[in-house]
Amino acid sequence: MRIARVTTIAALMAGMAGTVAHAGEPQRRVTVYLRDRTNVHPEVWIPAKALAGRMFAKIGVALEWGKGEPAGESSQATVFIELVTDTPENRMPGALAYALPYEGAHITVFFDRIEKGPDPARVLGHVMVHEITHLLQGISRHSDTGIMKARWTSRDYGDMRMTPLAFTLLDVDLIYAGLRKGMAKTAVLVAQR
Predict the structure, then answer these.
(1) Which structural domain range is residue 25 located in?
(2) Burial of 95 by CB count in 10 Å (0-12 exposed, 13-18 middle, 19+ buried)?
(3) What CATH number should be reported for the domain holding residue 21?
(4) DSSP label at residue 150
(5) DSSP state of 147
(6) pLDDT digit string (tens) for 101-147?
(7) Cα–Cα distance between 189 and 192 in angstroms, integer?
């Protein structure tokens, strides 16, 4: 019981530290457009979006969800998150998604792998946050703990049922560095099929 409490306190402190570290900066916005071409049930999609929004809000980044296509030309590139099904078993075994951070525009989520497991809404929210973070940072890297861990363990999945996985301080610093450098793409188009 004491260990769980210490772990929870450490996670809260890490999340708060990330927010405090960039408290002097204006809140950053990421617009997320939804083009629904799949049958992801609202009981999965709505809580996944809400969770992703709360996780980024803790570090001063606001997700704004829209529908359709971005209106007109934008000085910011568009990023596509595509939810796919019927993923071949030999395609990136064990992966739930991947991003192309150096290309800066595309994320693919293997939704069929997520919906087979427990709590698909919570896992989808975490996966979206993980992959969007790759694009915001503009690099391909992982942390030893938290949301940017390369492979989540059964313990991580258990922890995410209690409280969202946290960003490390370095995760947050790299997100803000990417946003400042313009490496981040702030319009996100979610394409589902």
Answers:
(1) 2-192
(2) middle
(3) 3.40.390.10
(4) S
(5) G
(6) 887 768 899 999 999 989 999 999 999 999 999 988 999 999 999 99
(7) 10
User: Regarding beta strands 61-67 and 28-35, do their DSSP bridges make them parallel or antiparallel, or are they unpaired?
Assistant: parallel
Q: What is the pLDDT of residues 52-103, one digit of tens each?
A: 999 999 999 988 776 666 676 554 445 678 888 889 999 999 999 999 888 7
Q: C-alpha dihedral over 117, 122, 125, 130, to 10 degrees?
A: -70
Structure tokens at 167: 């960003």
Give the span between the Cα atoms of 47 and 45, in whole angstroms.
6
How many domains does one find in the chain? 1
Q: What are the backbone dihedrals phi and psi of residue 62, each rounded to the nearest 5 degrees, phi first? A: -100, 125
Q: Which of 110, 65, 117 is closest to 88 using CA atoms?
A: 110
What distance in Å separates the CA atoms of residue 28 and residue 88, rounded to the nearest whole number?
37
Structure tokens at 51: 């969770």
